[in-house]
Amino acid sequence: MSRGGFVESFLLPLVAGGVAHVGAPLGLAGLARLRALKVDPGLAAEVFAARSAVASELLYDPIPPQLDLPSLRLAIAVHDLLFLFHPGAAGLAVRGKRIAEVARFAAALAALPATTDDDMLVARHTILHLVPGLGRTDVRVSFWAGRREFHGEEPPRRLTAWPNMRRVHEERWRVGCFAEAASHAQGGEVVRALLDASPLTDLLNPVRIEPRLVLGSRRAVLARPALCRLVIYAWLDGGIDRVGGALATAAIAELDGREPEVGRFVCALIAHLHLCTILAPTAQVPTRERRPAPRILVGTDLALRDFYGLFAALHRAIPRLAAPADVHRDPRLGPRVAEHAAACALACGELRVGELAALVARTGGPIALSNALP
Length: 374
Hints:
Layout: H1 3-16, H2 27-36, H3 41-58, H4 69-83, H5 96-110, H6 118-128, E1 135-143, E2 146-151, H7 157-160, E3 169-176, H8 177-182, H9 185-197, H10 199-203, H11 219-222, H12 225-238, H13 240-253, H14 260-279, H15 302-317, H16 319-322, H17 325-329, H18 333-348, H19 350-364, H20 369-372
C-alpha cells in the first residue's frame, strides 16, 4: 500500500470518521516504506485539520499535530491490529506463527516512549481518539440451503437474490472492534500497548471490560494540571451515571494497602470529581432532609453506588482527602460538602460505606471506628 493510499483509505477516516479500509499487514517494513514516500498535500491537509480540531477541544492553544513518525507508528499499529480480526486474515488461520508475528510487530510499533508533555500526549490521542468506538457490521444470510456469515463485508448479491423463492433472511449486528481485540490474547497485547502510548485515550474511555483501567499507572499524566482538567471535564461531560462505576472500580483496586501513596492519589481524584459536581453552577445539591435523586438511590448499579460511597467514606475517614481544608472551613462550602457526603451515604448504604471507609483508611492512617460503622 502506498503512503497516499494508506492515508486516504485508512488514516483519514481513522482520525476524521468514516469507513476505514484494512489491507494486508504493514508492520515495521511497511513503516519504512511509508516514511520514504510523499503524501498528497490535500490529503495531508485534511488529516491535519481533523487532528487539529480534536486537539483544540482538549487544549487551549495546542501545538498543531504533525504526521510524524510516532503518528505513523500508532496508525499502522491500529491498522495491523484490525487486520487480525479482518476476514482477509482467515486464510492465515492455520499459520498461527504468522498471526502472532503480526500482533507482535503491531505491539512493537505502538510501544512509544512514555511522556508527560501535554502537546505530545494530545497529538497521540488525535490519532487514536476514535479507536475505542471502531466497529464493523456483521451479516448472517440464511437461505433454503443453509447460511453464511460475513464479517465487515456485504454479502454477494447472488446470495440475496430471489429472497421469497429462496427464503432469504438477513441478520445484521454491530461488533465493537476495540472490545473484540481487547478480549483476544494477541489483540489484547496490542490494545494495551496503544493505551500505554496514549494514556489520554485510556483515561478518556474508562467504561470497558478489557483491559481494565489502572488509575495508579496514570498518575504522571493526571498530575499535569491541564491534562487532569481535560480528563475531569470529559468525565463530567460523559455523565457520572455512565463513568462513575468504572472509576470507582479502578479506585478500589488501588486500595489494597500495598501502595498507600497511590491509594491517596486515586481517592483525591475521586473526591475532586465529586467536588466539581457539587460546585458546578447547575448542580442539584441534596440535603439531609431530602433524599438524593432517584438515579443514585440504592438499587442502581453496585459499582456506581461505590462511586458515591467512596466520597462518603472519605468524608468520614480522611476529611483532608475529601476536600481541601479551606473548603471544610468555608461557611458556605463546608455545609454543601457535608450535605453531599450524607446524600452519598444514603445512596450507597451505611454498611457499604463502612466497608469502604476501612479500605480508605489504609491510605491515610487509622480512623475512629465509631465514625465508620453504621
